[in-house]
């Protein structure tokens, strides 16, 4: 089959892509920015990539006419707290227009469980998208999932942050809401299982794991799997806004996502339909099994995708290529260089920067800066990195976004997503003479930006100087 995969660089899309390739399908990945597709060269050689922004009016001759099926994996919940439902409706309408000129037979949409009469804005939007897609000239299969648990999923990472950082929690009353989590590998099994299956055409199915749990029970069971105990008390005084701030400061989630999640967490999300399990003969994993499987992936450094690599996890929402050309004029710079004797070792250290490895010098200062950024509404340092030693363009790296990661050219370019009175870049490059170049570039926004830069110059002297020395040296003991 020739399959159109929308949202190919999202959390689900990145998990689904290798499975579809393994099944022998021809894949056309639809992304807003081709440079954002974080796949290795081998995978890139097996797929076709097209650039489409489904929020813009459709263009002719973009989607191949010989498409047989498509996955609709687009959502905007983390992009906005106000009009994400309008955005999601528009993407569905434009999707219908794009595929109307193809020979497509089936569209598969991953939605949310919508059995409750009182739906959150998020779930109502998902239901509205279903209704729009049903108007398309194709057979629609809708899979309605609740909380998805897997390494790198937003739900898993939030639960992980809460339990690992707060053994004692005072929580809002929504933690008593019931839900039915599902393992990410079961979601992928259902998504691939319905492909081309006529028994699932023009129908909607709930997909979920076997356990119905409150959020409080999910937190306790996470602690059990990890081998420690936690204590949780609920209070009725936390408003949705206060709950959102609580999630924002304690976990790695963005404020927009936290606000929308809290709105959804007030609604019970329980599957009432298990037909698809029988049709596809799939036995979903338990919640504890899902957590255990997630940690096995983490421990083996096999995390394929993370929600934190999404553009909407930070403030950087536009095209990466607009920032790849570092400005030369009207900027302030901190430039340093050192001769290196073993460039390959140095390159590996550069490719491991951030996350658990840290920034090679003054990590406590970086943590303070991350904490201040979080207070000012920025992303802080909690996003870390998805892989310990692999970097792709578009990945999040603490409070940076990777613009360029070219190991062959020995160059890494980062763009700051922290709250700043200007724009900032950090570049590492090893030239043909084995000289390591480290350049911090700042384009200030007015007088405030310049005052900010000059106020932190003394810190730059120590931080950037220590960083390049520790990256360049061959002995890390």
CA radius of gyration = 23 Å
Task: Please indicate the percent range of residues in DSSP E strands (runs of 2 or more).
Answer: 15-25%
Please, what is the average pLDDT? 84
CATH architecture of the largest domain: 3-Layer(aba) Sandwich
Shape: globular
- Can you identify the CATH superfamily of the largest domain? NAD(P)-binding Rossmann-like Domain
CATH topology of the largest domain: Rossmann fold
Proportion of helical residues: 25-40%
- The overall strand count is 19
Please identify the structural class as seen in this structure: alpha/beta
Distance linking N and C termini: 53 Å
Can you tell me the CATH class of the largest domain?
Alpha Beta
Strand order, sheet with most strands: 3-2-1-4-5-6-11
Major β-sheet, in short? 7 strands, parallel
Keywords: Membrane, Transmembrane, Transmembrane helix
Protein name: Epimerase
Domain NAD(P)-binding: 7-149
Transmembrane segments: 451-472
Model description:
It is a single chain. With 477 residues, the protein is α/β, with parallel strands linked by helices. It has 2 domains: 2-300, Rossmann fold; 332-472, START domain (Alpha-D-Glucose-1,6-Bisphosphate, Chain A, domain 4, 2-Layer Sandwich). Helices cover 36% and strands 21% of the residues. It has 16 helices and 19 strands. It has helices at 11-22, 41-45, 84-99, 121-133, 154-165, 184-193, 215-226, 240-250, 255-265, 275-280, 287-299, 321-324, 343-351, 363-375, 446-455, 457-472, and strands at 2-6, 26-31, 47-51, 69-72, 106-112, 139-145, 148-149, 168-172, 178-179, 182-183, 203-207, 213-214, 231-235, 332-339, 396-397, 400-406, 411-416, 422-430, 435-444. The strands form 5 sheets. It has a 7-stranded parallel beta sheet with strand order 3-2-1-4-5-6-11, sandwiched between helices. Helix 1 (11-22) links the parallel strand 1 and strand 2 (26-31). Helix 5 (154-165) packs across helix 7. Residues 77-81 and 311-317 have low confidence and may be disordered. InterPro entries: DUF2867 (IPR021295), NAD(P)-bd_dom (IPR016040), NAD(P)-bd_dom_sf (IPR036291), NAD(P)-dependent_oxidoreduct (IPR051783). Residues 7-149 form the NAD(P)-binding domain. GO terms for molecular function: aldehyde dehydrogenase (NAD+) activity.
């Amino acid at each position: 089959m020739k399959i159109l995969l929308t949202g190919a660089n999202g959390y689900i899309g990145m998990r689904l892509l290798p499975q579809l390739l393994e099944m022998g399908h021809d894949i056309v990945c639809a992304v807003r920015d081709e440079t954002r597709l974080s796949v290795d060269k081998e995978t890139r050689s097996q797929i076709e990539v097209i650039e489409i922004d489904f929020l813009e009016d459709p263009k002719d001759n973009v989607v191949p006419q010989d498409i047989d099926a498509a996955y609709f994996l687009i959502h905007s919940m983390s992009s906005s707290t106000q009009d994400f439902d309008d955005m999601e409706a528009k993407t569905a309408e434009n999707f219908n227009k794009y595929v109307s000129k193809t020979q497509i037979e089936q569209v598969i949409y991953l939605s949310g469980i919508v059995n409750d009469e009182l739906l959150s804005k998020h779930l109502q939007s998902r239901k509205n998208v279903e209704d729009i897609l049903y108007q398309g000239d194709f057979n629609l299969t809708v899979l309605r999932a609740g909380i998805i648990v897997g390494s790198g999923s937003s739900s898993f990472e939030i639960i992980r942050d809460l339990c690992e950082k707060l053994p004692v929690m005072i929580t809002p009353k929504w933690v008593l809401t019931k839900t039915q989590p599902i393992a990410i590998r079961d979601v992928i099994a259902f998504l691939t299982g319905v492909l081309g299956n006529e028994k699932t055409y023009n129908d909607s199915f709930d997909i979920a794991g076997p356990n119905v749990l409150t959020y409080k029970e999910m937190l306790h069971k996470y602690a059990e799997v990890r081998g420690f105990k936690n204590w949780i008390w609920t209070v009725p005084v936390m408003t949705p806004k206060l709950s959102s701030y609580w999630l924002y400061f304690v976990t790695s989630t963005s404020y927009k996502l936290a606000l929308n999640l809290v709105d959804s967490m007030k609604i019970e999300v329980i599957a009432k339909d298990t037909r698809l399990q029988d049709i596809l003969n799939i036995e979903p994993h338990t919640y504890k099994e899902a957590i255990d499987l997630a940690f096995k992936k983490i421990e083996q450094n096999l995390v394929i995708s993370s929600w934190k690599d999404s553009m909407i996890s930070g403030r950087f929402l536009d095209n990466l290529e607009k920032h790849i050309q570092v400005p030369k004029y009207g900027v302030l710079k901190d430039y340093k260089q050192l001769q290196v004797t073993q460039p390959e070792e140095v390159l590996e250290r550069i490719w491991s920067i951030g996350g658990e490895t840290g920034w090679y010098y003054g990590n406590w200062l970086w943590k303070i800066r991350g904490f201040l950024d979080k207070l000012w509404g920025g992303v802080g340092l909690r996003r870390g990195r998805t892989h310990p030693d692999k970097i792709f363009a578009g990945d999040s790296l603490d409070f940076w976004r990777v613009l360029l990661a070219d190991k062959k050219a020995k160059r890494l370019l980062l763009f700051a997503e922290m709250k700043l009175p200007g724009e900032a870049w950090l570049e590492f490059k090893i030239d043909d003479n084995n000289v390591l170049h480290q350049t911090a570039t700042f384009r200030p926004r007015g007088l405030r930006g310049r005052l900010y830069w000059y106020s932190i110059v003394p810190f730059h002297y120590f931080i950037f100087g220590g960083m390049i020395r520790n990256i360049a040296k061959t002995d890390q003991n």
